[in-house]
Amino acid sequence: MFDRPDQGDQAILVCLDFGEADYQEGVQECTDLVTSAGVAVLGVLGGKRSRPDPALFAGKGKVEELAAMVRGAGADVVIFNHQLSPAQERNLERAIQCRVIDRASLILDIFAQRARSHEGKLQVELAQLSHLATRLVRGWTHLERQKGGIGLRGPGETQLETDRRLLGNRVKLLKSRLAQVQKQRTTQRRGRVRAGLASVSIVGYTNAGKSTLFNAMTKAGAYAANQLFATLDTTSRKLFLNTECSIVLSDTVGFIRDLPHTLVAAFRATLEETVQADLLLHVVDSASDMREQQIEAVNGVLAEIGADGIPQLIVWNKTDLRGLAPAIEYDDSDQPVSVRISALKGEGLELLREAIATLVAATPPSEISREETEPDDSI
Ligand SMILES: Nc1nc2c(ncn2[C@@H]2O[C@H](COP(=O)(O)OP(=O)(O)OP(=O)(O)O)[C@@H](O)[C@H]2O)c(=O)[nH]1
Ligand SMILES: [Mg+2]
């Protein structure tokens, strides 16, 4: 029934949580995510009318359908494109007789594969441990009753307590290392503020073309690829706009719908560049049918990290795919609100530089006092 390639994990996707209009795009995004993680997709279970269907977990029908699909295709894993509680995950695994993971675990896995820098790796590990911690608390309750083994744990500790303690130690260590990284960044930023340079961050949905734009503007050679979450680390370059205006431009990690909270919290050090920016270039893939939802998702994450008050310039990218000419759109008070460009073809970049210069001239560079943020203790 299905083609079965020879190597790597192979998955059945369960996509039940989309509205009718964007069902196909939602399935496509989930498929992209899964293939990004190096997993082959054998089949999709879902449907326009079955979203979000509690019967999936309560009734036997869907679960049996899924189990049959898994057996028929010989899948190694079932990936749910929404959140599952640890208990749901366990119950499903038992019923289907196959490994089950949810969207948050999948995204964490991709980040773990992509992390290159020391900082990136620390952040991903912190996020993974925080995700695991919720599973320790709720998922492993059967271990609470276990007796202590000789030499394995402190006096009177249950296995769960030992696990929590070890996890807690590691989380503490990771946080203190990340705090050091954050300190270095603050020092760098202070230097830039002293030099009177405005800081401009490129933000946007994953795969919108942020790194391509960053490279086109700075000739920096940041990694750009047709792959979700190609960029995990922030890269910054000084950029000369005109005789009166130079800025520091930063390329940042992309956002996605339902980004796990643990990940957002863990990536605070990286996202700090965004939070402290004077202006955000919000890059949108104008050729995507999901662009409105993507803009909303990005604004949601920006609000979560406290960057929703920063002025934004919308950058409609990939206009070459829609045959649109580059242009700036102004509001009633003659301030640029959006620019249409093609980062790949290098079209509209002059207009973008002009729009940035206008907006930066209208906003004074951030005060140093805004940088004295406390490290986040929420995870
Ligand atoms: N046709 C077209 N493709 C583009 C344009 N800009 C970027 N792309 C393509 O879109 C894909 C993603 O580009 P990236 O620059 O890596 O996107 P990103 O936003 O940095 O992605 P992440 O770092 O993964 O969040 C690449 O295949 C680019 O070649 C454009 O203006 N037109
Ligand atoms: Mg990128």
Topology:
Layout (H helix, E strand, L loop, with lengths): L9 E6 L7 H14 L3 E7 L8 H4 L2 H13 L3 E4 L5 H11 L2 E3 L1 H12 L3 H22 L19 H36 L3 E7 L5 H9 L16 E8 L2 E7 L9 H6 L1 H8 L3 E7 L5 H14 L7 E6 L9 E4 L5 E5 L8 H14 L17
Helix pairs in contact: 5-6, 6-7, 7-10
The structure holds guanosine-5'-triphosphate and magnesium ion (MG).
The site of guanosine-5'-triphosphate has 23 residues, from helix 8.
Task: State the gist of this model.
By secondary structure, this protein is of the alpha/beta class.
Describe the structure.
Among the domains are: 10-101, 3-Layer(aba) Sandwich (Rossmann fold), CATH 3.40.50; 196-362, P-loop containing nucleotide triphosphate hydrolases (Rossmann fold). The two termini are 45 Å apart. Helix 6 packs antiparallel against helix 7 (159-194). A hairpin with a 5-residue loop joins strand 10 (327-330) and strand 11. It has twelve helices and eleven strands. Residues 1-5, 138-148 and 368-379 have low confidence and may be disordered. The chain is globular, with a radius of gyration of 23 Å. The chain is α/β, with parallel strands linked by helices and 379 residues long. It has a seven-stranded mixed β-sheet, sandwiched between helices. A four-stranded parallel β-sheet has the order 2-1-3-4, with helices on both faces. The structure holds guanosine-5'-triphosphate and magnesium ion. Its cofactor is Mg(2+). GTP binds at residues 204-211, 229-233, 251-254, 317-320, 342-344. This is GTPase HflX.
